[in-house]
Design a protein that fits this description.
six-stranded parallel beta sheet, binds nicotinamide-adenine-dinucleotide, 363 residues, alpha/beta
């Protein structure tokens, strides 16, 4: 069987990893990489043993499918070129800079029946895949995604940059429309939000909160999911899943400490986790999410299958992100509807700094 002829467009921080993995897949012939930064294109091409281009349009006639990993502000233009030529694409997340662009790309792909996959990589995180295979009816989802300042993705704020991962995962887990959205944001480095918090209420009663920061001293990517089945803690970074569920006895008879004598109550404290609430630690789960995502794209292109993260799903994540950004614009920091537009810029013109912590003298 002939190999799928592929290219990677934009070989910066993430695109060079796509190129490295594709170059090693037996089902793929990496025909070339393209980057407007010629030195970068050449250096990556040399490393993975392919050809370098400075303009993706030169590559288009020679390939069957492409991965697009240019900055988000360029996604629409590059993706539009490929879809217009009937070429299947995997576009990095977020699908586009705004909803209008995302809608146009999805419509173009649908009308021409071309595969459009979006790079929401957490869907290929083995810990998430394990969770998604279990029956879940989430009623509360709490997500936290914190990373250091990288100096990249400054064309978008943290909602489209990082929070979008969790929005996509929540939309995949909760099959119900989002009814209400509230959010707040803080801008440290410029006009866009670098720290954001959103509260969502789904039509089926599930609630979700998402907090994201790209200026954090500690890195963390975690999600808690509460439902009638029990509690799940998903650590995306460690690829670990912890599941806690009530024992069969509790499910049958419940557990009311006020019914217990003092000795049994003391024992309950020690036996709560394990005997009454069963804890299952899974992981760290093996497997590289980026490789799984690329293999899935290659599989969809060669078989005509539907991508696990379709253009519509990428578009839906942007629609929710847009509502969060709109809510952020009208959030009142000072209880006044006449507050300036948000995300609120830092440093704030009001309030005291934390007072310095006095060193405690030895007693
Ligand atoms: N899935 C994830 O977890 C994840 C992680 C990081 C980045 N991303 C996404 O990947 C994309 C790229 O991010 P990055 O961190 O690699 O950025 P980057 O700045 O490191 O790399 C982007 C590269 O694209 C090149 N480029 C710019 N315009 C181009 C064009 N029109 N044609 C060809 N090349 C062009 C730049 O020269 C640069 O080398 C962004 O959309 C980002 O949101 C996704």
């Amino acid at each position: 069987m002939s190999r799928l002829r592929m290219a990677v467009i934009g070989v910066g921080h993430l695109g060079k990893e796509h190129a490295r993995i594709l170059a090693g897949l037996p089902a793929v012939e990496l025909v070339g990489v393209a980057d407007v930064n010629q030195d970068q294109a050449q250096s990556v091409a040399r490393r993975v043993g392919t050809h370098a281009y400075s303009d993706h349009r030169q590559l288009m006639p020679h390939i069957d499918a492409a991965v697009i990993a240019v900055p988000t502000s360029q996604h629409y233009f590059v993706a539009h070129d490929f879809l217009s030529q009937g070429k299947p694409i995997l576009v990095e997340k977020p699908l586009a800079l705004n909803l209008a662009q995302a809608d146009e790309l999805v419509d173009l792909a649908q009308s021409r029946r071309i595969i459009l996959q979006v790079g929401h990589i957490e869907r290929f995180n083995p810990a998430f895949m394990d969770l998604a295979n279990r029956s879940l009816q989430p009623k509360l989802i709490l997500s936290e995604r914190f990373g250091p300042f990288t100096g990249r993705s400054t064309d978008i704020g943290v909602v489209l940059d990082l929070m979008i991962h969790d929005l996509d995962v929540m939309l995949a887990l909760v099959s119900s429309p989002v009814q209400t959205v509230q959010s707040v944001g803080l801008s440290l480095f410029g006009g866009m939000e670098d720290i954001a918090h959103a509260r969502l209420v789904f039509a089926n009663g599930c609630m979700g909160t998402a907090t994201a920061s790209r200026a954090s001293p500690v890195g963390q990517r975690r999600m808690q999911i509460w439902g009638p089945e029990g509690f799940a803690l998903l650590d995306f970074a460690a690829r670990q899943l912890t599941l806690i569920q009530p024992s069969p006895e509790i499910r049958q008879a419940g557990l009311d400490p006020s019914d217990l004598d003092p000795a049994s109550r003391a024992m309950l404290k020690d036996q709560l986790f394990g005997r009454h609430l069963q804890v299952l630690d899974i992981g760290p789960c093996g497997g590289d999410a980026l490789t799984a995502e690329l293999k899935h794209f290659v599989h969809c292109v060669t078989t005509g299958g539907k991508p696990q993260v379709s253009g519509e799903e990428g578009r839906n994540a942007i629609a929710l992100a847009t509502r969060i950004l709109e809510s952020m614009q009208i959030h009142s920091w000072q209880e006044q509807t006449t507050d300036p537009a948000h995300p609120y810029p830092w440093p704030t013109p009001f309030g005291q700094l934390f007072s310095p912590v006095e060193a405690k003298s030895a007693a």
